[in-house]
Amino acid sequence: MTVLVVGVPEGPELELLRSRIQRNPHFRVVSHAHTPDIALAHARILLPDITVLTLSGNLREDPAALDVFQGVRALDPPSTVVLRTRNGTTTTDLDGITAHGAVHHVRAGDEEALMRALRAIGQRRATCDPDQMP
């Protein structure tokens, strides 16, 4: 499955995140972007299966992150989103968004939670037969 990483600047954190994701041979980071306009441009061209979006604050209070979130969810097919929040960030604004399973929430730095979310997405996609959908 292809993965777009958004919201992490070039440097050690990005490299660590990329290596964690690609440790599983079923996931490949195809691109990364730190700014919303580049993220959406990459998403429109690459149509990633999964977008890992790192938030610096609350999603609804960050118009740039919200634009990326809405943009990747509006793709055809929509990208599944893993929202990574920094420690200390409140998540009350994510309650309604993550309820449907197409959006997962993990804390930045929680490698096990990230991998659980990616595996859950992969399993859901593997068992979905598009020919059987209404």
The largest sheet, given as strand count, sense and whether it forms a barrel, is: 5 strands, parallel
User: How helix-rich are the residues, as a percent range?
Assistant: 25-40%
Low-pLDDT sequence parts: 130-134
Ends distance: 24 Å
Query: Numbering strands along the chain, what is their spatial order in the largest sheet?
Result: 2-1-3-4-5
SSE order, as H and E?
A: EHEHEHEEH
Approximately what portion of the residues adopt beta-strand conformation? Answer: 15-25%
Q: How many helix segments?
A: 4
Derived from helix and strand composition plus strand pairing, the structural class reads alpha/beta
Please give the number of β-strands. Answer: 5
Give the rounded overall mean pLDDT.
85
Q: Which term fits the overall shape?
A: globular
The value of Rg in angstroms is: 14 Å
In short:
By secondary structure, the protein is of the alpha/beta class. The chain has helices at about 10-20, 35-45, 65-75, 110-125; strands at about 1-5, 30-35, 50-55, 80-85, 105.
Characteristic key phrases:
alpha/beta, 4 helices, 5 strands, globular, single chain, 134 residues
Q: Could you walk me through the main structural features you see in this protein, from its secondary elements to its overall organization?
A:
This protein has 134 residues and is of the alpha/beta class. Helix content is 37%, strand content 21%. It contains four helices and five strands, in the order βαβαβαββα. A five-stranded parallel sheet has the order 2-1-3-4-5, sandwiched between helices. α2 runs parallel beside α3 (63-73). The longest helix is centred in the C-terminal third of the chain and has 16 residues, at 111-126.
